[in-house]
Amino acid sequence: MIKVGFLGAGNIAHTLAETFLFLKDKFELYGVASKDFKRSEEFKNKYGFKKAYKDYEEMLNDKNIDLVYISTTIAEHYKHIKMSLEHNKNVLCEKAFCQSYYEAKEVVTLARKKDLFLAEAIWTRYMPSRGIITSLILSGAIGDPYYLEANLGYRIYDKERIYSPSLGGGALLDVGVYPLNFIDMFVVDKIKDINVMAKLLNTGVDETIIGNVTFSNGVLAQFFTSINDATSREGYIYGKDGFLKVININNPEKVEIYKKKEDSNYPILVSTINFKEDFNGYEYELVETYNSLINNKKENPSMSLDDTLKMMKIYEDILVKSKVKRK
């Protein structure tokens, strides 16, 4: 049984607490710490944690905790990952992993030096839908892919954690990680170039970013992310014989397969695969984390530390090119 300590008790922590409880044969909700002790107490009582701590330091000093789950603001991830590792704790941290590539590189180096488990909890990388879509591509269902596109946006620009540079705000690190990870999961090659256009809020963070990606193998991709309004949340993978349409890249609901017919050059819908989750979709990252820990592995195969660093380098490049204000 893996004893878990929650560092942070915000919105996503509630969802993950429910998910850990769904996996109660694998995990025990042991302790919780947040900036507000009253909130920690309420969180503890709601989900049945054994302890609530007066601060993060007290929790990290508890030798009973095997795994720290971090769900604080993006701007705090680096500090809290580093604190946890320095207290010899295994760590599962919410996306975006850090605010910069350099922060991510430092904590990954530290985890490897101390031989501790560290992983990024970006749920779509762990979902069964990823394997199903990959199998369709490899089977030749649409021919060789040559172009991908993906978008994700929500109307959330009025939230402090989103519009504030000091909290790691902006579209890219909050929601833009999903279209970029969608593209990365299904193009197995190095990026040759990225060109971007960005619209910034008056606080200096990114409201909307559109990017064109060129891969070394000639595959092209485009992503679009925004905190200004809701978008279609769709992803497309185009091949010479048809295309795949993924409904809701943030939590895939189904994939539609379109193929060309002999008497027409325009692809038509030939089949649909619906995705069904065992619980709420977050369980897959937790199960993989459990398996890694009990098998003494120091990272998760679905989102390795090298994968995290690769994606952080991409985000860094885009943010620099977009002239986004950083903390």
Q: Any idea how many domains? A: 2
Uncertain runs are none
Per the CATH scheme, the topology name of the largest domain is Dihydrodipicolinate Reductase, domain 2
Strands, total number: 14
CATH architecture of the largest domain: 2-Layer Sandwich
Proportion of residues in helical segments: 25-40%
Amount of beta strand: 25-35%
- Give the ordered list of helices and strands: EHEHEHEHEHEHEHHEEEEEEEHH
Q: Report on the biggest sheet.
A: 8 strands, mixed
Class by alpha and beta content: alpha/beta
**Briefly, what CATH class of the largest domain?**
Alpha Beta
> How large is the count of helical segments?
10
Query: Radius of gyration from the CA trace?
Result: 20 Å
**Main β-sheet, spatial strand arrangement:** 8-9-10-7-11-12-13-14
Distance between the termini: 39 Å
CATH superfamily of the largest domain: Dihydrodipicolinate Reductase, domain 2
- Average pLDDT score: 97
Shape: globular
Provide a concise account of the structure shown.
With 327 residues, this protein is an alpha/beta fold. The protein contains ten helices and 14 strands. The two termini are 39 Å apart.
